[in-house]
Every structure is written in structure tokens, then in C-alpha cells.
Amino acid sequence: MSRLSIETPGRAQTVVEGLYRDVEHRISASPPGLCPVDMALSFLRLCHAQTCGKCVPCRIGLGQLTTLLEEVLDSTASLETIDLIEKTARVIQDTADCAIGYEAARMVLQGVQGFRDDYISHVEHGRCLFGLNQPVPCVALCPAGVDIPGYIALARAGRYNDAARLIRKDNPFPTVCGYVCEHPCEARCRRRMVDDAVNICGIKRFVCDHATDWTPPPCAEPTGKTVGVIGGGPCGLSAAYFLSLMGHKVVVYDQRPKLGGMLRYGIPDYRLPPEKLDADIEFILSTGIEVHTGVAIGKDIPFSEFENRFDAVYIAIGAHNDKKIGIEGEDSEGVYSAVQLLRDIGEGRVPDFRGKRVCVIGGGNVSMDAARTSIRLGAESVTCVYRRRIEDMTALMEEIEDAQSEGCQILPLQAPDHVEADENGRVTALWTRPQIIGAYGSDGRPRPRDAASPLFRIECDIVVVAIGQSIDSQPFEQVTPVVRGKIQAESDAFVPNTPHVFAGGDAVTGPATVIRAVAAGKVAAANIDTHLGFHHLIESDVDIPAPHLTNSPACGRVELRNRPVDECLSSFELVKCGMTEEEAQQETSRCLRCDHFGYGIFKGGRSNKW
Amino acid sequence: MVNVLINDVPVSVPEGTTIMDAAASVGIEIPNLCYLKDLNEISACRVCCVEIEGEGKLVPSCNNVVAEGMVIHTNTPRVREARRTNVELILSQHDNKCATCTRSGTCHLQKVANDLGVLTVPYPADLAKGKKAFWTTTFPLYRDTNKCIKCMRCVQVCDKIQSLSVWDVSGSGSRTTIDVSGNRVIKESDCSLCGQCITHCPTGALRERDDTAGAFAALASPDKVTVVQIAPAVRTAWGEAFGLESGAATVGQLVTALRQMGASYVYDTTFSADLTIMEEGTELLHRLQAGDLDKQPMFTSCCPGWVRFLKSQYPEMTGRLSTAKSPQQMFGAVAKTWLAQRLGVDPKDIFSISIMPCVAKKAERELPGMQSVPGAGDDVDLVLTTRELARMARAEQIDVPHLAESPFDSPLGDGTGAGVIFGATGGVMEAALRSAYFLTTGQNPPADAFREVRAGGPDRGWREASFDLAGTTLHCAVTSGLANARRLIQAIRRGEVKYEFVEIMACPGGCAGGGGQPVDGSDREKAGSRGAVLYELDQQAAQRFSHENPAVQALYQEYLDEPCSEKSEHLLHCDHFAWQMPQKH
Fold this sequence. Notes:
The structure holds 2 protein chains of 2 kinds.
Chain A: H1 11-28, H2 36-50, H3 56-73, H4 79-95, H5 99-114, H6 116-125, H7 137-141, H8 148-156, H9 160-168, H10 174-180, H11 200-210, E1 226-230, H12 234-245, E2 249-254, H13 262-265, H14 274-285, E3 290-293, H15 303-309, E4 312-315, E5 321-322, E6 335-337, H16 338-346, E7 357-361, H17 365-376, E8 381-385, H18 397-405, E9 408-411, E10 414-421, E11 427-440, E12 446-450, E13 456-459, E14 462-465, E15 469-470, E16 482-483, E17 486-487, E18 501-503, H19 506-509, H20 514-531, H21 565-569, H22 581-588
Parallel strand pairs in A: 1-2, 1-4, 2-3, 4-18, 6-14, 7-8, 7-14, 8-9
Antiparallel strand pairs in A: 5-15, 10-11, 11-12, 11-13, 16-17
Chain B: E1 2-6, E2 9-13, H1 19-24, E3 49-52, E4 59-60, E5 71-73, H2 77-92, H3 108-116, E6 141-143, H4 153-161, E7 167-170, E8 177-180, H5 196-199, E9 206-208, H6 212-220, E10 225-230, H7 234-237, H8 251-261, E11 265-268, H9 269-289, E12 298-299, H10 304-313, H11 327-343, E13 350-356, H12 360-364, E14 382-385, H13 386-395, H14 417-420, H15 427-441, E15 463-469, E16 472-480, H16 482-493, E17 501-505, H17 527-540, H18 550-560, H19 566-572
Parallel strand pairs in B: 1-5, 10-11, 10-13, 12-17, 13-14, 16-17
Antiparallel strand pairs in B: 1-2, 3-4, 3-5, 6-9, 7-8, 15-16
Helix pairs in contact in B: 2-3, 9-11, 9-15
């Protein structure tokens, strides 16, 4: 007998490890609307299978909980059963020896408290309060409800013009979204049950890069109604596009010299080339929209006067004001707000950061934009300071990775304390207070707190503050309710107690994403049309190819490649390369066509019009 | 055209044809359960799967289309195994007590299992129990969850054809079932009781509340004078339950059958259909003259499914309904008053039974205001669907194909061709116009003058026609199916269309396609062929104008004075506001 030996996993163990990964993927692809009690029972069974069997609460208790949950689901339980489940789970949580037991019990306890209504409904009526009603996960998760399986099928068939037309039924910014959408559609892609989510965003970019027909659908008969839109960003222009198609006369006002809003003045060119943005905007305007740029409603034209000119008004002013961080030295020379910095560049006022050391404060996408922009402005070094951990940053992981690969150093767990300046008031350093990550807060994220370490000095010449944006709602306060800076509108975009004022986008929700702005514009267009006394339908006559009968076997997801870093740093040229045709063909073939297979063929697979 | 090979047979079909249809085009049938053409092509049962060379998995043939060069096999060992296993799985969750099922002999599942020769099911039975299996026994619509195979047809027909979405998938996971949508109970839902879910169910999961025992008891009771009325559409279909073509078993044979079962008197609802025309036609002219129809039309009120629909979906339009009772209820009211007088019997001793192609009639007879004689109960004491009537005839071992014909009893057995066509979509309108023409001009039009309302007109869910009545143009619309009704009402409300008179029937094709009609398991929609039987009967009828019905004339002379007289209003009209929909329990 050897005294020690090297353990190698057996075949069974290797297979089981693989199954664990499959289950992880499977859970992350869960469709919305599943019975929570049934899911709790399924998780509980998994937990019980993990039990080593030593301790009573875990070995026996979890089993008894399983039986009791089954009784609830079979409606053979009484209301007392629910109390017994709660009590038993509480005791297991209190007395299990290790996390296998007490964490399992905690999950049951959370459920029995969190969705007790559903437990009661099962017991009393034999029914679940939940149900699947959004069978196509990508469409359900796209705020604008874009027909994703439809356009992927068209892309697979090489029908790029039709694919773009289909997208535009719900979203007039297909190109922009192909470049910068945060793609919530991919989060629960059913393909994850096989391998990984389809690269939906990349396919959309491919479609728009290859579409050649940029003629908009014909507008409906002129209605004689006029709509004034304040704000020429993605929200305002989306509403304008659909309203114009519906036959209304639309006039868009924007205070900046060019249309595009945050797309132009917030997103750097290396992520969204201006000509791509212009292409979408030109397409939208070609439906016959009148535009007035450089006019600020509420300043150049009083809102009350503006409101009276139109049959309906849509406020989509976005969130363009910067938020102050409120630390000592913030008004020193060399402190920029990220919003201001990006806007200046968008308007052609490009600062020179050559040889400068830059500190960026914040962990969101805007701070990554500010950091990578600073690098391109010639900064000698860029340090991103964030008070939590990197994994807690709200920026997309790919943005963080791109920033890091371009040389941006991320300094996590440092809370800005004050800005140090020289006698001339120029920034010399950013002082930060080291943090330690701590207990979880009510938002489900671990909270940082001050560490028992001395203040930390980061020598720098420039500080860019990127901690969020606010809304310039002041000009509208007289006519619309504003709460905590946000314009108050109902879920149908109508502003209460006004004759015909609607509002949406960042100005109502606070800073969000392009696709949410588009969705808000779509909602507003529909409801403004109704308000004006019409019922125009926006529809697409594109026929969707029949699905291929056999899905492609497990296959890696195509990711977009970046150009070599060296090439990227010196200019604002586009960083990400689009898919090749070969890649696009393979990636489109990975779509499982949930519009046809599964629940989608029965209900909710496709809405041809809205 | 697309060329494929199915079981080695070359097939050429238009692009977009499903594999199932392509196979059927050369006589190759592929078993299926959930499939219902154009309505439910969701491949849920997976019984219709076939093997396609080069494809990884078996492919459902009902909703996948052929592609050029496909080589398809419908009967390989792999297909056989899959088909049989899926049927066995369905059977494991089905209450296989065929001997006590109304659909034995017309059940799709029974046929598919029998055809496959399934003798045992290898899986343990897994049936719902307790609360999961509960359904009210008092509502006219009955659902047996353990016979439901979750094919979703009821969901689809209620969504797409009737636009009421009463049924929905409930829950998720292994306990997924079909239930009343929105976690409602059926009694408190806005179910119109059209019964289309029943006639489209492949099994016995859905049926009407069975009232045959009550009917047998009444027919056998020495203390009761049983008065039976037979609705027009019943004569088109009752023989189907005995394997006969639509219309092959006549109403005369049905009269004989009912007499054999013990009915004291057998009458024709066609009589009260004619009476309805007198009342509703007169009301129409009154409302027209009073300017009441300048903005919105008067709707027909003879279909209780439609009335339930309007009251639940557009309650503010309840006043647009004609106040005339339906023919069933007019008959009931007359039976316990004038008829009782003429027969010299106490109304309390009359037990009034109606045979209807309809489930909603079972609810209509209980409505407030449908009791004309204090102490004599409801005007109609019991309603049987055509299916229940057929079950009773079967129980009595009546040899339907060889029955002799007998005439209806008099006087309520007199009906005209105008009353007969009530059973087909457009029939009420046409009959009303024939008499309205007479009432305004004093002379009869040609009997077929208004046949335009039977078909034609713009294809947007309803038909329309305009007629000149003594210088006044009457704009009419006709539709059937409640989704069509909804489209029409929305167009009216948006001001896109304007009519004075609108006929709506809840069931597609009218009562001929009623939810109480026989189901033969063929999945063929029969409203058209049954309706044609009614128009043929009208064509052959001695009298084709409701106002010429001698019994109707006698009723006015002896009892009611004239249409819409005070007495007529009391007996033959109703207050649609007297009850709530959905009903509160």
C-alpha cells in the first residue's frame, strides 16, 4: 500500500461534473412564469441529493420537506401544512451542521415567505398563480419586443434587407443596436441549454452592415394631426418614426446642433461610428419628419407656447446633466464630468490629455467610455477608481475587459475622498479611502465599508467623474410633475393632468439603455396615435422562412473580435470587427427557433403587428 | 411545386404544404390527436411524427412543411415505437373508462389507440384527484380533467374563433393543465356557453351537463303533460349521431321518436321563430321610426350565447339588443299560457322540454323574467342538446334510420320556411326582412328577395346588405362566431360602419354549427352542409313568410291582440338588464 496517492476523477465523476455545468446553463435559461413552488421543490430535491447523510435535519428533514411540498402541489395539503413546512425549514436552518443543510432550508424558507400566496393557491384551489406567457425568451426580454427568431432566420437565408425591415417594425435603430445594444435578449436564450446563448447582437450588426435597401415603408394617409417631439435621441426619434408612419405630421426639436442625443454625445465613436448612427437617423427622417436643432424647448420657446402648437407633445429629453460627487476639491481645474467630456468631443471640442495622468471615478459603462476615451486623447495613464469590487461594477464585462486590455488600470475598493490641488487650483492627486467588501445589502449586492487602512493618494492631473447622469427637468416643472428629478408619466407614457403631453425615455426612467429608449418611443407612438383618435397598426409583411428541422449540434458561440490594441489606441476608429459571412452563417444556424418549436407555435410565438 | 418521396411514393405538392397534407394527398394517413387544421397546428401530442432521411430527430408532420427532395417515412420501426409510446403516455394520464364516456365511438384517442392495437399501458396511471379534479356539476358546461389530453384545441377555438379566451394553460411543469383562464372559476367567468370547445374536443373531456335523467323522469311522470319543442337546426343533425348524413333523419322521424319516448305533445320551435319575427320585426320598425337606430343598430337577441357575450364584453351596449325573447323562451311562455288554456291543463302540470343545438339555452331558461305564470316554474323546464336527445333515443333502442314520420301536434307545430332558416347564419335577418317588407308595404316580396344576407359581401368577418323598405334604406349586417362579432362591434363603435339591423349568432354558421350538435369525430365543420338542409326545407315549405303562419295569426287573434301589444310585451319580451354577466354567485 502506498502511503499517499494522486486522485484522478473516475468516469462517472467526470460525467457528473459535465452535468453540473449543463444544469447551471439550464437554470440560467429558465423561462419566466414557472411555478415557484414546483421550482422550489426541484431545487430542494437537488439539495437533498447533496446531503452526506450524517445529520438528522438535513438527511431526514429535507426529505420530509420534499414530501410536504409535493402535497402542496398535489393540493392534498392543508393550510397547516404550509406552517409545518415553514417550521421544519426554520429548524433545519437553525440546526443543520453545514451549508448543504442550512442553505437548502433557507431557500425553502425564502420561498414559503416570498411566494406564500402561491402556496395557498395550490392548497386551496389546486392552482398556480403563475403561467408561461412569454414563450420566446429573447423576444420577451427585448424591451422593444423585436422579432429576433424571425430576423435571425432571414439572416440565415441571406435576406438581410428583409431582416432589417423586420427589425424596424419594432425598432428603427437596428444599426445602432447592432453596435451598442446591451442585448438583454441573450440572457435567457434557450440555446444556453445546449451550449451558449446565440450572439444575437452580433447577428443584428451583420444584418445592418449588409442590408442595402434603406427605403422606409410607406406612411399612412396624412391624418392632419401634428405631434411635437422634444429630444432627438433614440427615444424621441423612435416615437417620431412610428408616428410619422402612422400618418401624423411630426416635428422634432433638439437643443444640440445634431440629432442622436446620447448616441452621438455620450457613446464614443470607437464603439458607434457616427456614420452608422447617421444612417439610422437618415432612414428615420426620410419618412418625412421635420427637424429643428439648436432649439431648447423651455428656454428658446416657452413650453406652454410649444404645447399649444401641436395636437400632442412627447417629451424625450433624456438625462444629460452630470451628477456631482460632492467631495472636497471637486471644483479644481482638471476635474471633468464624463458627460461633459464625451459631449465636448461629440461637438468637436477635443481636449488634449497627452502626457496626463487620468483618474476616472465610477464603475458603469460611462466610466469605461471615459477611461477608453482618455487613452485615445493621449493620456499617459488611466486609472479607474471604484468603491466596490470589479465583479460588482455595473459596466458590461466586455467593456471592462476592453478597457483593461487598452491599458486602463482598475482600482477597486477605493472610495473617492477628496481631490488635491496645487496653489493654482490644478489637480495634483485623487485621495481615496480604501474599502473592504462586507455584508450583503437589501439590493442583494455586498456592500463596501471603510477599511482600517490609511487614505491612499493617486497622483494625477485629470479627474473624470462618471457616477451617473441626471435629468434637466427644470424647464418642465411648471407643466409636468417632477419627482426626484424625473418627469412623471404613466406606463402608457401619458403625463397626468395634461391635455396631450406624453413623456418617456431616460427623462422618465432615469439613465437606461438605447433599447429601453426605443421601447419607450414605441409605446408612446401607439398611445399618442390612440389619443389622437386613430388605430394605426405598424406591421411587417416579411414572410419568415420555415425553420430547419434539425438543430445544429452543440457549437461554440461566435464572439466579435477587437482590432489589435495598438491600432485602436491612437484614434477613435471602430474597435470591434463584425462577423464574417461564414461566422454569421454558423451563428444564425444556432438559433433554436423558439417561435416555432415549443410553446411559441401555440401562443405568443410571433406578433405581426402592434 | 415541391417534389418529395413519402413511403416510396413520389408526391408533388405546392410549396408550403405540410408533410401531413402532402401524405394525405396520396392517400397516406398519418395518425394525429391534437391537430385541427388552421386552428391547432402545434404538434403537442407528437403522435404525427415521421422520419425524414437526413434529419436528426423525428419530425411532427402537422406543422412542418415539405422541402424539395425530402424522403419521408411514416411507418418505420422508429416511427411506430414513437407513435405508440406517445399514445401510451397520453393514456397513462387519461381516464380510460370508455364504457361510461359520451364520446365512446367518436373519441380520437380511443380511435388512435384502437388502431394501434394498444392492449396494455406500460406506465402507471397518473390521474388528478381531489381539488385538482373538481368541477361544478351545476353549470351547463362540464369538464372532466382526467379525460383532457391537453391538446389545446379548446384554448384555440375560444381564443381564435370566439375571442373570449375562457380556457388557458394553467400552471407549469408536470402539473400543467387546462383550466379557466386568469384563475377564475367557470361560473364566474365570461363563458358564453357557445359549446364550441365541446364540439372541438377530441375526447370526452368537455360536454354539456347531462339532463337526460330529468327528461326521462318527466316523460314517465303520469302527473306531467310533457310539451316538447324542437329547434330548427336539430333536424339537420340529429341523425348524424346514428351515422346518417346531415338532414337524412327528418324532423318527422324525430317527432315519432319523441312520441315513443313518451312525450305528450311534440311541437316545433319554428312556430315561435315565426312569432319572434313578428315581435322583433315590429320592434325594429318602431325603433327605426323613433330614430333609435340612427347611431347604433338593433341586434338580434335569439342567440343566448351572443347575449351573454355582449353583456360581458360590451355591457353598455345591452340596450341595443332586441327585447324580444328567443324562440325557445317565446315558445315556453306561450306553452304555459295560451297552449295550457287551449289544452285545458293547469300550467303547473305542464313540463316544457326543449331540444336545442345549443348549450347556452340551458342557462337561458333559468334567467330572471323567464317565468310567465306564477307558481308554474320556468317557462322552459328542461333543455336537452341534440346530443342528449340522441343519447336518449339510443338508450331507448330506437331504430332511427327506419322510423316512420309523424306530423307535429297542432297548433304550435305550425312553422314556415322563414322560421326554419333561423337555424342558419343570416336566417333570422332574412326571415325578418321578408315580414318587415310586408309590414311596411302591405305586400309580400319574392320569398328569396333577401337571400343576399346568406353569403357574399366584403370579407372582413361579417356580411352586409342594404334593402329598400318602402323608400327607407335598411342597412343590415350578419355575422356568426364571436370573434367576428367583436370585429363588427369594434367597427361599429369606431364609426367605420353603420347599420340599423344586425344579426349575430355565437356559433360559426349559426345554430346549424351549434355547440349542442352531434360530434362525429371526423373534425369536419358541418355548419355549411347542415345550413344547406335548412335552406332546402325553406325552399320546399308551403309557407315562407312568418306573418302567414296560421298558428301565429290565431295566437294574436285569440290572445295577444297584435305584435308588441301590452300583452305581447309582457309575455314575449324580456329585460336584458335583469341579470349580470359574468353572473355573481
